[in-house]
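Lecture notes, part 5. Sequence design as translation. It can be helpful to think of inverse folding as translation between two languages: the language of shapes and the language of residues. The source text, in structure tokens, appears below.
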């Protein structure tokens, strides 16, 4: 497959994934909001309440019933969005991380997995993770939900930690997101849809559906609701190398995921909680402060690498010529960042950044320093094998002023 065709497929899949995800999450958020704001009058167990809405130039009246005496001629279901989101997401996982020798999945500085082993491990995490989750909650439902919650959170954290020990930081993050997405779509297909089918069958007979099955489906729907914010962050995480490129990347992810889930929880209970604003602000501040502490380098690694003993108590920047820095850039970066990239995975120049001329290298010196020296997230998954010594060269050149001839 040519790089151009692969890039076009990537574009289409990414676009479809984004649109389907917006539809799925938007529907989920809306119905979750409706459930928490329905106004119930009377004691009819079949009537969950109703609500009036104002939107797009008109009034909407929504009423929730558990059974109906006349089946409608047209019933709208909400399952295609979830399925399309997962299918396009898994297709992107294959295209970006599994094809091309798993170049973006394997980081030789982290582990020496073969491409085949990395792909099998990635798929195994998705399949095995869902099986463990589903069995756990089938056993714990209505009896040990608190314990199951603790075990679930611990297993997700352990998975994040384990994946960062074998995959590139970016690859580990995306697999945690893919696992959560698999849990969510599994909940739709194995619990929510069966319950809805049973409700439809009962409604056609004019009967009341089994409440136990409906409650189990609702529980899984709530799980999906809490996983939404962490998944959304992971979808965007590739733009933030300070997170996945951090030495404690698994802990950074854990903090952001817990912060996101807690934010979702507070927004869920805000309709019946007096001090929810203060709670929300507290959670956000704590999560942001912890994330800042984790991603902020204690001191400039380039300064430490670039400093050599001079006199007692003094240091000076070891001299590095532009020719040395350019040599590293040309050997490790130019395969992608060129007007004519030679890397078969680079159909287009990443972020439109070129290193073909000295002026271009100087223009992006700050970016080179942050990505190649501070966070070590470039080259992507270190596919070109940039060594620590080469990163030191770039760091010393930058600290000396990033001069060019």
């Amino acid at each position: 497959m040519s790089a151009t065709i692969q890039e076009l497929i990537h574009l289409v899949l990414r676009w479809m994934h984004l649109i389907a995800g917006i539809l799925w999450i938007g529907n989920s958020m809306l119905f979750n909001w409706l459930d928490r704001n329905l106004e119930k009058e009377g004691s009819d167990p079949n009537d969950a309440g109703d609500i009036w809405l104002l939107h797009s130039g008109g009034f909407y009246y929504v009423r929730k019933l558990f059974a109906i005496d006349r089946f409608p001629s047209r019933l709208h279901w909400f399952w295609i969005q979830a399925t399309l989101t997962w299918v396009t997401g898994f297709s992107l996982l294959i295209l970006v991380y599994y094809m091309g020798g798993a170049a973006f999945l394997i980081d030789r500085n982290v582990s020496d997995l073969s491409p085949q082993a990395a792909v099998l491990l990635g798929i195994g995490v998705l399949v095995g993770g869902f099986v463990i989750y589903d069995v756990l909650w089938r056993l714990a439902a209505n009896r040990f939900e608190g314990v199951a919650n603790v075990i679930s959170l611990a297993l997700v954290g352990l998975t994040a930690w384990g994946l960062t020990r074998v995959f590139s930081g970016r690859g580990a993050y995306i697999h945690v997101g893919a696992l959560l997405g698999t849990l969510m779509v599994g909940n739709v297909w194995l619990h929510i849809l069966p319950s809805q089918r049973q409700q439809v069958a009962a409604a056609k007979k004019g009967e009341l559906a089994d409440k136990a099955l409906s409650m189990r489906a609702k529980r899984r729907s709530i799980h999906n609701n809490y996983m939404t914010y962490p998944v959304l962050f992971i979808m965007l995480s590739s733009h933030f190398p300070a997170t996945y490129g951090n030495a404690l990347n698994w802990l950074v992810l854990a903090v952001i995921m817990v912060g996101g889930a807690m934010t979702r929880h507070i927004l869920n209970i805000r309709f019946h909680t007096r001090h929810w604003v203060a709670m929300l602000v507290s959670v956000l501040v704590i999560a942001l402060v912890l994330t800042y502490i984790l991603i902020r380098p204690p001191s400039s690694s380039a300064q430490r690498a670039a400093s050599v003993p001079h006199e007692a108590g003094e240091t000076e920047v070891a001299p590095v010529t532009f020719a040395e820095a350019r040599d590293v850039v040309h050997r490790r970066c130019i395969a992608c960042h060129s007007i004519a990239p030679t890397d078969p995975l680079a159909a287009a120049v990443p972020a439109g950044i070129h290193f073909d001329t000295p002026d271009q290298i100087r223009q992006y010196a700050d970016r080179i320093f942050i990505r190649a020296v501070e966070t070590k997230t470039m080259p992507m998954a270190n596919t070109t094998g940039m060594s620590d010594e080469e990163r030191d060269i770039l760091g010393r050149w930058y600290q000396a002023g990033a001069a060019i001839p």
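The translated text above is only one of many valid answers, since several sequences can fold into similar shapes. The two ends are 41 Å apart (CA to CA).
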